[in-house]
Design goal:
6-stranded parallel β-sheet; alpha/beta; two-stranded parallel ribbon
């Protein structure tokens, strides 16, 4: 089946609050999830390989998956990178350019714990571990809620600042909070990115819009059965009843109801 999943993570650490738990996968759970991918025959692609498959330049392998992280938290380097290296899995980190070496101030105002954001040296260490570095804007802005000029600056300046810091092209983008609009998408393409990730769930198939890539949100509260269900059905919210409801919809469709 010619389709790929993109997984989305934020923190890989022990949660520091109940509010943070949804966004924070423990290192133990992350290790079990990556082990499941490896043992179940998933092919971990880089973002560049995925883009080539989406454009039809290369065949999409069976059970294709790409792993992404949003925001640039230091704990990803500490806990996730060694696990990914062990399996030989590439990944992408979407970094907030103006917060490098600082903290997650876009979250702390909403009551989240203070977390350290990777410095430029930290991003380089991630690159050495097999990560591509993408942009997540300058300040983690809600792009549809600001002016076009402000959004253009958030999208374009973050790219150039990361490129200046890392000394290489930054080709991939992720919409903060998953928020986008048609004008925002057009700004991303105009800035010269090769692809962009949303937070819409589902599978990615060749020929679909590379600037609205779908991702599966892996929650810190997910148990392994939920992770497996998300992989199977391409959904963000797993439940015990979802397979039955899915089969019911398929049966009704076949009956023409």
């Amino acid at each position: 089946m010619s389709r790929a999943l993109i997984l989305m993570y934020h923190l890989v650490d022990i949660p520091r609050s109940g509010q943070e738990q949804r966004f924070c996968t423990t290192p133990n759970d992350f290790a079990h999830q990556m082990e499941y991918l490896a043992e179940s025959g998933y092919t971990a692609l880089s973002m560049a390989q995925l883009c080539d498959c989406m454009k039809g330049k290369t065949p999409m392998p069976g059970k294709a998956v790409h792993i992404t992280f949003d925001d640039g938290f230091n704990c990803v380097l500490d806990h996730a990178a060694p696990i990914l290296q062990h399996h030989g899995f590439p990944a992408t980190m979407f970094a907030v350019s103006d917060r490098l070496g600082s903290s997650n101030d876009w979250m702390t105002g909403r009551g989240f714990p203070v977390r350290t954001i990777l410095s430029v040296d930290g991003l380089r260490a991630l690159e050495d571990a097999g990560f591509a570095i993408g942009s997540h804007t300058r300040t983690h802005a809600r792009l549809p809620d600001i002016t076009v000029e402000e959004a253009k600056d958030e999208i374009s300046s973050s790219k150039s600042r990361l490129e200046d810091a890392l000394g290489k092209s930054v080709d991939y983008f992720a919409y903060p909070f998953g928020k986008f609009s048609e004008p925002v998408r057009d700004l991303v393409t105009g800035a010269g990115y090769r692809a962009a990730c949303s937070t819409r769930s589902g599978f990615n198939r060749p020929g679909e819009d590379p600037y609205l890539l779908r991702r599966i949100d892996v929650f810190g509260t997910d148990r392994l059965w939920q992770f497996r269900q998300k992989l199977k059905f391409g959904i963000n919210e797993a439940s015990r009843t979802y397979p039955l409801r899915y089969m019911g919809r398929r049966m009704m469709a076949r009956l023409g109801a």
